């Protein structure tokens, strides 16, 4: 019943947003943001019971989330995004594999930072799969962990999910989070590096 109530709440939220967007004039300054928020709401509903989703869908959600955050912090938030042209964007990855580190980077690394904020996401191939790198010039992984309570919940769930999936696979998903010594011409920050094998099985995944 709790699951049903939660799903009803999400659908209600999405339907309201859809109605507002439809009634909003095309020239309204918030039209784009409303559409992005509606897309994120829809994806949240659609992905509730999916273990894995295509890389392209994950990146769409991440880009939408970043777009809304940049709208909140427009003057000092730069974002670079690079995806190798040979990358197979239909490859499945665990849901929220990129989104959770990105949310942490913005909330706990960049928001407390005074001055220009920079977030970089890079997706490329390695010899056996996908290499995903998320790097920021924020206050640093260790510093942010000491400042904020509860920020590790998303990461804990992500690690638990990866460990469960890895137990059923010979080739493993690898994830590391470390202090970054530099990012372009900026100082310290955090770097998250993830490797997802091409040959990887997701039990009970809904494609």
Structure notes:
The protein has 207 residues and is of the alpha+beta class. It has a domain at 75-197: Histidine kinase-like ATPase, C-terminal domain (Heat Shock Protein 90). 43% of the residues lie in helices and 23% in strands. It contains 6 helices and 7 strands; from the N terminus they run ααβαββαββααββ. It has helices spanning 2-23, 31-46, 55-72, 99-110, 141-147, 153-166, and strands spanning 52-54, 77-83, 92-94, 117-126, 129-136, 174-180, 189-197. The chain has a 5-stranded mixed β-sheet, with helices on one face. A two-stranded antiparallel ribbon has the order 1-3. A hairpin with a 2-residue loop joins strand 4 and strand 5. Helix 1 (2-23) packs antiparallel against helix 2, helix 2 (31-46) crosses helix 3 and helix 3 (55-72) packs parallel to helix 4. The radius of gyration is 18 Å and the shape is globular. The mean pLDDT is 79.
Using brief descriptors, characterize the structure shown.
207 residues, alpha+beta, Heat Shock Protein 90, five-stranded mixed beta sheet, 6 helices, 43% helix
């Amino acid at each position: 019943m709790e699951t049903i109530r939660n799903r009803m709440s999400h659908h209600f939220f999405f339907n309201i947003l859809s109605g507002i967007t439809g009634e909003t004039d095309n020239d309204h300054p918030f039209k784009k943001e409303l559409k992005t928020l509606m897309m994120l709401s829809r994806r949240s509903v659609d992905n509730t019971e999916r273990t894995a989703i295509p890389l392209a869908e994950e990146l769409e959600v991440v880009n939408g989330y970043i777009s809304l955050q940049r709208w909140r912090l427009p003057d000092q938030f730069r974002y670079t995004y690079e995806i190798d042209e040979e990358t197979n964007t239909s490859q499945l990855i665990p849901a929220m594999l990129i989104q959770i580190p990105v949310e942490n980077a913005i909330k706990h690394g960049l928001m407390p930072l005074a001055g220009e904020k920079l977030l970089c996401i890079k997706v490329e191939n390695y010899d056996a799969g996908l290499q995903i790198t998320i790097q920021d010039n924020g206050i640093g992984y260790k510093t942010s962990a000491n400042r904020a309570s509860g920020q590790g919940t998303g990461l804990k769930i992500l690690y638990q999910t990866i460990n469960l999936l890895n137990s059923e696979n010979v080739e493993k998903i690898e994830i590391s989070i470390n202090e970054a010594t530099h990012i372009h011409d900026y100082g310290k920050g955090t770097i998250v590096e993830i490797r997802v094998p091409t040959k990887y099985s997701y039990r009970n995944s809904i494609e």
